[in-house]
Amino acid sequence: MKAVRYLGNSKCKIIDVPIPRIKPNEVLISMRTSGICGSDLWGFRIKNGDIDALTKSKVKINKIPIPGHEPAGIVEQVGSCVKNVGIGERVAVYHKRGCGYCEYCLSGKVYFCKNVRAISEHIDGSCADYLVTDGINCLRLPDDFTFDDGAILMCSGGTAYSGIKKIKPSGADVVAVYGLGPVGLCSLIFAKAFGSKVIAIDINENRLKLAKSFGADYTINSRNDVMKNKVYEVSAGIPISAMDTVKKIFEITGEKGADAAILGTGNIQARINAINCLKKGGRMVLLGMSESKDLKGDMQQALEIAILKELSIFGSNVFPISMYWEILDFLRFKSIAIGKIITHKFRIDEAQTAFEMAETESYGKVAFIWD
Length: 371
Description:
By secondary structure, the chain is of the alpha/beta class. It has 2 domains: about 1-145 and about 335-370, Alpha-Beta Complex (Quinone Oxidoreductase, Chain A, domain 1), CATH 3.90.180; about 160-315, NAD(P)-binding Rossmann-like Domain (Rossmann fold, 3-Layer(aba) Sandwich), CATH 3.40.50. The chain contains 10 helices and 21 strands. The chain has helices at about 40-45, 105, 145-165, 180-195, 205-215, 245-250, 270-275, 300-310, 325-335, 350-360, and strands at about 1-5, 10-15, 25-35, 50, 60, 70-80, 90-95, 95, 115-120, 130-135, 140, 175-180, 195-200, 220, 225-235, 240-245, 260-265, 280-285, 310-315, 340-345, 365-370. The strands form 6 sheets. Strands 3, 6, 7, 10, 11, 20 and 21 form a 7-stranded mixed beta sheet that branches. A 6-stranded parallel beta sheet has the order 14-13-12-17-18-19, with helices on both faces. It has a two-stranded antiparallel sheet with strand order 1-2. Helix 3 crosses helix 4 and helix 7 (about 270-275) runs parallel beside helix 8 (about 300-310). The longest helix has 21 residues, at about 145-165.
């Protein structure tokens, strides 16, 4: 089968590898759609032929797992112990594989399992003709959903839905969405579906136009953000200076501030802006991860502002596997085709072009497709 292999320095190639064999509890999936996630780009951009894995150990490029963790496809083979799916069924594949028995796995929060194995991170992923996974990770994809829908739900869409549920948006809210990559765009779509007005913020004009087409009420390009004095008062007599983006949000909201903020980016300044732009008692959810571990600058002050404003700040890690059916019902009820955030599709042979396009971070989701 064909599979993607990272070479380092924003290069990859297609390699031929044997179709993997399955164990009694596993399933072989013939791929139909596999999205490229922002986290896949970290491996694509790696320098000097090595990758600093999450385990903090150095791993040679030729031992990095096949990338891709947004899979949807058709069941090709099933192990003797698999009972939940059969050959020929359409499935989306949850990308965190746990032990199946601990309190976290049984609650659906497989990502908290101490023995978790993520495809594309610890084991081979879905940028290949075939993918092996545990039977319990196969989620039936109803006929009224496309393979594109299923692939998006396995990371970007599911992550966005799980996160937005934590801040409980409503038709009375103004929600600021920072970072309009696939997670941010899905968050925007869900916030609109819950009835909120949405302010979409990014540094890329193409993505701002895309956000507008998906229903954003306001867009702000923060590329050339500058500091403004006395944007708002965090408390009587305590004026706060903040970036121009924050000032614009206060103007849009009648000087009150946004009710909620969603961080589809891990950018430190965006996190500071989000804290500043919220009204007193506002809510914020962090979805985007950062490659930078540098928290210097105004982050300390921002956290103190969070205290003074009594903000509710949530972290959100993928989505519980048990939430899958709730998301499907919500998409049906709201007539949302979540797969529409895929703006560019490529064959596996076009991997270099596909990753280069994803790396520009100027579009929606880039995905591989198979017939």
